[in-house]
């Protein structure tokens, strides 16, 4: 963890672009609540398989015009250099200075990956086409990407993204701090020393958490899973238990030198704000 202790901790929130008028209004209210916590920036997702790409652009430009610091996600799978370049030019013109560069998911019904196969290729292209205009964040997987051939292969893939020009990383969420510490130590052994910020998922609904975790490969430790199962539909107990578990993990991460926290808010302010308050950030 020595590589991470030299960085000033930064705190950020992830949002996703809504697809309905009600969702748009809810997001506006959520970000007004979250901005009071003074995060370094908000990230905005690109949508699974590119399903919300236009909404991402609209949301990012609206937030940027309102004075928020925004880091849009941009995923490359199933896209072309021309399309990627056009989006990046719009962000550059709007004054966006930070990106989260991802491979993304293959759009439904598409057989080919497009001109980019990996996030490292996207990072290299951004650097080639735009130089150092953007600060580039990439994804990291403390419990390893579900499609990785092995733990070592996943580490090597992460290193390729850093070598291609990424400035820092945000991890997939996890509930086992030791997995994060081990991942960082493994990165250090490979000469990687960029900030690797832990991704934090507040626990809202157990069924939703299981679905997300099964998809992205994030492990829910058995003791946490069994406790959540035992609460059934008791949302208050799920929230209370989740707040304790996540807050304690965040406290440990920061104490051991993590360079900040990135909250997956799911466009809700309540649980993130309560964890924030407990941590005294």
Topology summary:
Elements: E1 10-15, H1 21-35, E2 41-44, H2 53-65, E3 70-75, H3 81-94, E4 98-102, H4 119-130, E5 135-140, H5 151-163, E6 168-173, H6 177-189, E7 196-200, H7 206-216, H8 222-230, H9 235-255, E8 260-264, H10 270-279
Parallel strand pairs: 1-2, 1-8, 2-3, 3-4, 4-5, 5-6, 6-7, 7-8
Helix pairs in contact: 4-5, 9-10
Strand order of the largest sheet: 1-2-3-4-5-6-7-8
Question: What is the tally of beta strands?
Answer: 8
Radius of gyration: 18 Å
What order do the helices and strands follow? EHEHEHEHEHEHEHHHEH
Largest sheet: 8 strands, parallel, barrel
Q: Given the C-alpha coordinates, what overall shape results?
A: globular
Distance between the termini: 21 Å
Amount of helix: 40-55%
Number of helices: 10
The gist of it:
With 281 residues, the protein is of the alpha/beta class. Helix content is 47%, strand content 15%.
Question: Which descriptors would you attach to this protein?
Answer:
281 residues, alpha/beta, eight-stranded parallel β-barrel, 10 helices, globular
What would your notes on this structure say?
It is a single chain. This protein is α/β, with parallel strands linked by helices and 281 residues long. It is 47% helix and 15% strand. It has helices at 21-35, 53-65, 81-94, 119-130, 151-163, 177-189, 206-216, 222-230, 235-255, 270-279; strands at 10-15, 41-44, 70-75, 98-102, 135-140, 168-173, 196-200, 260-264. The radius of gyration is 18 Å and the shape is globular. The mean pLDDT is 93.
